[in-house]
Amino acid sequence: MGQMYAAEMQRSGRWDIAYICDTDPASCQLARTLYPFARIVQDAQDIFDDDSVQAVGLFTLANSRPEQIEKAVKARKHILTEKPIADTVEREWEIVKLTEGYDRMAAVNLYLRNAWYHQTMKQFIDEGELGELAIIRICHMTPGLAPGEGHEYEGPAFHDCGMHYIDIARWYAGSEYKSWHAQGMRMWNYKDPWWVQCHGTYENGIVFDITQGFVYGQLSQKQTHNSYTDIIGTKGIVRMTHDFRTAVVELHGITRTERIERPFGGKNLDTLCNLMADSIESGIRNPRMPQMRDSAIASQYAWTFLEDARHNNLPAIGDLQTLEEIRERRRNMTEGYGLLRPKRTGV
Ligand SMILES: NC(=O)c1ccc[n+]([C@@H]2O[C@H](COP(=O)([O-])OP(=O)(O)OC[C@H]3O[C@@H](n4cnc5c(N)ncnc54)[C@H](O)[C@@H]3O)[C@@H](O)[C@H]2O)c1
What we know:
The chain is an alpha/beta fold. It contains eleven helices and 14 strands. The strands form three sheets. The protein has a nine-stranded mixed β-sheet with strand order 13-12-11-10-6-9-8-7-14. A three-stranded parallel β-sheet has the order 3-4-5, with helices on both faces. Nicotinamide-adenine-dinucleotide binds near residues 23, 24, 44, 109 and 267.
C-alpha cells in the first residue's frame, strides 16, 4: 500500500514526498531508487521530529499503527492512515478518542466509500428510486490471500478484507448494527474460518447479508471470482458487479433504468489523497473522508461476527495439504488475485 500511495501522491503533483520509512532494508533500497529526492529512514521518529513535515501517511501493519498515530498527534501532523487503525478493538477506540478532538486532519482509507459505483448507487437510493431501502446484500469471494501468507495482525480474511464490506453496508443503511448470525467455514482445516457469511439487522430495520471469503477456487485451472452488491428497496433495485477492471452498475428505479459501465478504479487512492490535500489546503475537513470512528466500528463488528461464527457449529472441510498446495501455487503465480508482491529492490 505504501508503494501505491507514494506513486499516487507523486503523480498528482500535490504532495512533496519528504521521507519514506520502512524497517525492511530491501524496501528502503527500492524507495531510494524510485524517490531519490526523499530521505529514506528506518526509524519513523526522524519524521515526527521534523517540523517541516505537515502530514504523515501510516501504511504499515496494524500492530505498529497506534504508536505511530500517537506520535503523529504529539507532533501535530495531519494523518492519513490505512485500516485497521490498531490491532485490538481496545486500542482502536483509544485512537478514536485521541483523534476526535484533534485540530489537524485525520482520515482512514475505507476505500469503497470513494468508489464511483457506490457513490452512484447511494445517490440513486437517496433520490427515492428504490422506494424504501430494505435489503443490502454484499458478496466478495476471490482466490486471494491464503491463510498464513501475511497480514497476521489484520486478522482472518473476514476482518482484514471483510471490514470494508461491513463498513459500506452500514454506510448504505445509515444505521448501526443491531442483530446478527454468522456462519463460517474452516476451509482446508485451517484454524480460522476463511469464509464467513453474516446476516442480520440494523437499528432502523434494514437487513443485511454479507459474504466474504478468499476460498474461491484457488486450485482451479483458470481462476475466477464473484463480487457483487445487490440492494433491494420496496419498489426498485440497484446492483453492481465487477471484474477488477470494469465495474457495471445496473439501476432499476421507479423512473429510471440504466446500465453504467466504467473502469473499476482499484483502491481509489487518487480520490482519498485529493480529499486529504483539499482538506489540508482549505483547513476544512471534507466530510467525504472516512473517520477513525467508522474504521473502529467496522473492525469491531468484523471481530464480533467472526466470534459469532466460531460459536455456530464452525465446520472444517479439506486438509492442510491442500492449503500447502495453494500456497505453493501462489508463490509461483505471476498473475492472479491478491498476489504477494515479491520484494523488489529496485536493482
Ligand atoms: N484499504 C485497503 O483496501 C487495503 C488494502 C490492502 C492493505 N491494506 C492495509 O494496509 C496495510 C499495509 O498492507 P500491505 O499489503 O501494504 O502490507 P505489506 O506487508 O506488503 O507492507 C507493509 C510494509 O510495512 C513495513 N513495516 C512493517 N512495520 C513497520 C514499522 N514499524 N515501521 C516502518 N515500516 C514497517 C514492512 O517492511 C512492509 O514493507 C495493512 O494494515 C492492511 O490492512 C488496506
